[in-house]
Amino acid sequence: MLALAAALMTLTQSPATAAPKAPAAPAVPAESNGGVRIMPLGDSITHGHNIPGGYRINLWNHLATGGYTVDFVGSQFNGPPELGDHDHQGHSGWRIDQLRSNIDGWLATSDPRTIMLQIGTNDVNQNYDLANAPARLSDLIDRILQQKPQIELFVATITPESSPDLEARVKTFNAALPAIVNSKGPRVHLVDMYKALTVADLADGVHPNATGYAKMAVVWYNALRSVPGSLVPLGQPGQGTLVNAQSGRCLDVDGAVTTSGARTIVYDCHRKANQQWARTASNELRVYGDRCLDASGAATADGTPVIIWDCRGTANQQWRVNADGSVVGVASGKCLTPAAGGTANGTRLELRTCGGGDGQRWTMAA
């Protein structure tokens, strides 16, 4: 068990030194309920300064309550019994360059499918090469993608600080993050953690208190759910976009609406959250993590609209994805079909008697 972080002044005012190297030997694995391998990566806020486990405690509980099976991974280990998996990769006092010096070994040992990265607070507090901090973060992201090109990487802005001088540095650093993340492709996602907390959520002017960590957990949970593939183990069949063979367009939730009852359509493929579908062991097709492809009103007639709805485990939310590419409703025995055989953007989807045409064939693409 790691000791708690040293005093704040030690963490934030230590002199710049050569980046330490992590031990070569892998850590002993902690508890896990299996599932997708997620690495919480960062500094003392990931470690849980003030409250061992930090945001990971509530995040674990949100994931478990939401029905997700996850395996937190990393060479570090801490937190209370109610944190079901204590592994993480948070290092008190560490900066961007120090993570960069160790990232290859951690990725090789832990093999994460998803990374939650928050780093930069110690660069700010140590006033360490701040002008180049965004570029150093960009390089860290590039290295992660080089080593794990199929990973889902979430990059969080850093949280507020009570010191006006440090807060000004925080804002400058955070302002550079959107452009960096947007340049890295569809598997890198920005998480706005800064706006979720205020100085009232800080225990010591830098690190969150219990309320702050709880708020962080909600933000992380919602970010993960917005990319359903991030919560499905890499290589598990049945995750990604569903591409219609006739139109070449993707199964899409119209307008990226997340509320139950939203219509599904075909639309140009862009791999954003409203086109990311995950098959489950219960034959659901899930989007946004907790919405299911649904035959409206549990109807079975030709022309029944296909919508999204809160997942309930009912037969009208179960679908067989067949070898011929047809997606067939279990309750109706009918196929997921663009209305009137349409191929244009915005064509709505409905149930139709299966006929074997290209409009009723779909391909799952990563």
Would you write up a description of this structure?
This protein is an alpha/beta fold. It has 2 domains: 30-231, Rossmann fold (3-Layer(aba) Sandwich), CATH 3.40.50; 239-365, Trefoil (Acidic Fibroblast Growth Factor, subunit A) (Trefoil). 25% of the residues lie in helices and 21% in strands. It contains 8 helices and 19 strands. It has helices spanning 8-12, 44-47, 55-65, 96-110, 121-125, 133-147, 164-182, 210-225, and strands spanning 36-42, 70-72, 76-77, 87-90, 114-118, 152-156, 188-191, 239-244, 250-253, 264-267, 277-279, 285-287, 291-295, 306-310, 319-321, 327-329, 335-338, 349-352, 362-365. Helix 3 (55-65) packs across helix 8 (210-225). The two termini are 39 Å apart. The model is unreliable at 1-30 (pLDDT under 50).
Fold topology:
Blueprint (H helix, E strand, L loop, with lengths): L7 H5 L23 E7 L1 H4 L7 H11 L4 E3 L3 E2 L9 E4 L5 H15 L3 E5 L2 H5 L7 H15 L4 E5 L7 H19 L5 E4 L18 H16 L13 E6 L5 E4 L10 E4 L9 E3 L5 E3 L3 E5 L10 E5 L8 E3 L5 E3 L5 E4 L10 E4 L9 E4 L1
Parallel strand pairs: 1-2, 1-4, 1-5, 5-6, 6-7
Antiparallel strand pairs: 3-4, 8-11, 8-19, 9-10, 11-12, 12-13, 13-14, 15-16, 17-18
